[in-house]
Write a structure and sequence with these properties.
Elements: E1 4-5, H1 8-30, E2 35-41, H2 45-60, E3 64-70, H3 76-88, E4 94-97, H4 107-113, H5 125-133, H6 141-153, E5 161-165, H7 172-181, E6 185-189, H8 196-201, E7 205-208, E8 226-229, E9 233-236, E10 242-245, H9 250-253, E11 259-260, H10 270-286
Parallel strand pairs: 1-11, 2-3, 2-4, 5-6, 5-7, 7-8, 8-11
Antiparallel strand pairs: 9-10
Helix pairs in contact: 1-10, 2-10, 6-7, 6-10
The structure holds NADPH dihydro-nicotinamide-adenine-dinucleotide phosphate (NDP).
Length: about 290
């Protein structure tokens, strides 16, 4: 069997188009244009690229896009004051602080300073709590993207065995919560899990969010499983460039799974599209409309 390749480009494009249409409808009906403000501290080259990309897609979807650039030596008080201003600004529906922050800044305190109803990255503990309790909130963008991909492949999640490898607040834990909410039987695996291959082999849905290139081998995958590879690992090439590799050995997995996401071209492309969707949701909720 050769697995279906779950194409992140196509799914992300469709989501961005849907968001753009709904943004136009919201503006026409209510005169409100959703606005996302990204705060970037310092000049980390990778962060600069991510922020530019977010800004472009936000504007392409017809939303207001602002970026606040602060110098690398910014202190905590200045950053908190910036967030306070954005919390109070009615034109700002979503706030995203680009991580990682320079070492002198306390990331957790910064995230906690964001109004949870503008926390479109879904990282505020209030939003993690809402997710755990099944209340409306914001789900982090990458896990949301994973679920959209899974929903395209699986009609009925009820009772399926789901294994999530990785337990970060950013990826593993929220994905596990989303799968639980879909009535899967969820196992969370991590670096202390005993016999990880055997645990993975139980999975009808296997999500790898580890950050270890090709950790998950083909013979760890249950035949017919749906596999979501969140991992992004840089493999250096002799010419000084690098190639991206996932946490799953794709060439092996594709022979066993029913459907599998590639790296690149999979989950990574969904993250920004889900950020746009969350920003639209924030604007709708402010108007008292359903998210
Ligand atoms: P973290 O480093 O925060 O978490 C990694 C998790 O993997 C931890 O829970 C860790 O366990 C677990 N782990 C580490 N080694 C092993 C192992 N040998 N066996 C089993 N579990 C292990 O990473 P993130 O969750 O932030 O990211 C995971 C991957 O996803 C990375 O490659 C990252 O680049 C990628 N990513 C991709 C995104 C996208 O847009 N596609 C967005 C965000 C992340 P323990 O808790 O015990 O230490």
């Amino acid at each position: 069997m050769t697995a279906k390749r779950i194409d992140g480009k196509i799914i992300a494009e469709a989501l961005r188009a849907r968001v753009a249409k709904e943004v136009a409808e919201l503006a026409a009906a209510h005169g409100v244009v959703p606005g996302l403000t990204v705060v970037l501290v310092g000049d980390d080259p990778a962060s600069q690229v991510y922020v530019r990309n977010k800004g472009k897609h936000t504007a392409d979807a017809g939303m207001r896009s602002d970026t606040i650039r602060l110098p690398a030596e910014t202190d905590q008080q200045t950053l908190l004051a910036t967030i306070g201003r954005l919390n109070a600004d009615p034109g700002v529906h979503g706030i995203l602080v680009q991580l990682p922050l320079p070492a002198q800044l306390d990331s957790l305190a910064v995230i906690q300073a964001i109004d949870p109803d503008k926390d479109v990255d879904g990282l505020h503990p209030v939003n993690a709590g809402r997710l755990a309790q099944g209340l409306p909130g914001f789900v982090p963008c990458t896990p949301l993207g994973c679920m959209i991909m899974l929903e395209g492949e699986i009609a009925d999640f009820s009772g399926l065995e789901a294994v999530v490898v990785g337990r970060s607040n950013l990826v593993g834990k929220p994905i596990a919560q989303l799968l639980l909410a879909k009535n899967c039987t969820v196992t969370m695996a991590h670096s202390r899990t005993r016999d990880l291959p055997a645990v993975c082999r139980r999975a009808d849905i296997l999500v790898a969010a580890v950050g270890k290139a090709e950790l998950v081998r083909g013979d760890w995958i249950k035949p017919g499983a749906v596999v979501i590879d969140v991992g992004i690992n840089r493999f250096p090439l002799p010419d000084g460039k690098s190639r991206l590799i996932g946490d799953v050995a794709y060439a092996e997995g594709v022979e066993v799974a029913r459907a599998i996401t590639p790296v690149p071209g999979g989950v990574g492309l969904m993250t920004v599209a889900c950020l746009l969707a969350n920003t639209l949701t924030a604007a709708r909720r402010r108007l008292g409309l359903s998210g």
